[in-house]
Amino acid sequence: MDAADCIFCKIVKGEIPCAKLYEDELTLAFLDIAPVAPGHALVIPKAHHPDLFALPAELGAALLAAQQRVGRAVMAAMGATGLNVQQNNAKSAGQMVFHAHYHLIPRREGDGLALWPGTPYPDAAAVAAVAEAVRAALAK
């Protein structure tokens, strides 16, 4: 998907409305139209980058600052005691809009949303094998 067909780029340009929460020179935050929980917000870069791996490193600080600012406000407004920040990359990971974005999901004890616990590794050898594979990929 290129920027011309991107729903988030159209939101940035004002061609599609959104419930805007925050905006600065580089970022925009708005409510998700299909929230996991009330107050579920999205923080996006204004410039089109399809995923985390395409983001320029210097944009990371602005996105993190926006997530912190909006996340605190969402928690306060929703009476939340916690916040999940989720970011999906590629269709296989659940990415549906191919413009980098971060989900801010307000949480409360006992809210019924279950992301964890996951499945533990079967043994120490499995942990070591995965760690070694990642270290080898980092060395390339």
TrEMBL record:
Q: Which domain of life does the protein's organism represent?
A: Bacteria
Query: For the motif Histidine triad motif, what are the positions?
Result: 99-103
Question: What residue stretches are annotated with the HIT domain?
Answer: 7-114
InterPro entries per the UniProt record, alphabetical: HINT (IPR039384), Histidine_triad_HIT (IPR001310), HIT-like (IPR011146), HIT-like_sf (IPR036265)
Task: State the Gene Ontology BP annotations.
Answer: nucleotide metabolic process
Xref: CDD domains: HINT_subgroup
Q: Where is the active site?
A: 101
Cross-referenced Gene3D superfamilies: HIT-like
The GO molecular function terms of this record are: catalytic activity
Pfam families from the UniProt entry: HIT
Protein name per its UniProtKB record: HIT family protein
The organism encoding this protein is Solidesulfovibrio carbinolicus
